[in-house]
Amino acid sequence: MDVLDALRAWPARRWMVAAATAAATYLLIALPTDLIPNPVFGREIPPTAWSYWALGLSAVLSGLVTATYVATPDEAQRPREGRLGMAGALVTFFAVGCPVCNKLVLLALGYTGAIQFFEPIQPYLAGGAIVLLAWAFVARVRRESSCVLPERPLTPVR
Questions:
Q1: Which residue of 8, 70, 73, 114 is surrounded by the most CB atoms within 10 Å?
Q2: In terms of C-beta density within 10 A (0-12 exposed, 13-18 middle, 19 or more buried), how is residue 88 classed?
Q3: Is the residue at 151 inside a domain?
Q4: What total of structural domains would you count in the chain?
Q5: Residue 158 falls within a domain, yes or no?
Q6: Quick check: is 73 in a domain?
């Protein structure tokens, strides 16, 4: 079963979780990075056009990854491992944020360093975040559709 077949088999509950998580992720990153203008947060350097696309794609992938954690009725209890999705969402925050508004970047590089060194790598961070999220999603969907071997007691070999 490939990824698209697995998505077609998802129940409505998973799709609702995916949509809600995608919307929440978009808002939780867009508001503090001021991609959505608001009176609480601001930015000194205007957002780039790719920031909106990177955030939108990351939010959708975050929703899909989160939905893989919703158990389906026919699914056996399996261990739920993996941290790539969480890392991808965190990297997205740094990728679309204002390079000089981020306190961690300012502490590490200073104002000039943030503009000279951090701002040019932000598109690569966005690409890396999308790759991490996509990788996590595909790995989780493939793991779900893989066969689980039944546990057998070990018998001594004669």
A1: 114
A2: buried
A3: no
A4: 1
A5: no
A6: yes
Model confidence pTM above 0.70 = yes
Query: Over 60: is that where the pLDDT of 78 sits?
Result: no
Domain residues for the domain of 106 are 3-145
In a domain, 54, yes or no: yes
- The answer to whether 51 and 92 are in contact (CB under 8 A) is no
On the question of pLDDT at 1 being above 60, the answer is no
Tell me how crowded residue 123 is: count the other CB atoms within 10 A of its CB: 15
Smallest CA-to-CA distance from 23 within 56, 53, 52 is with 56
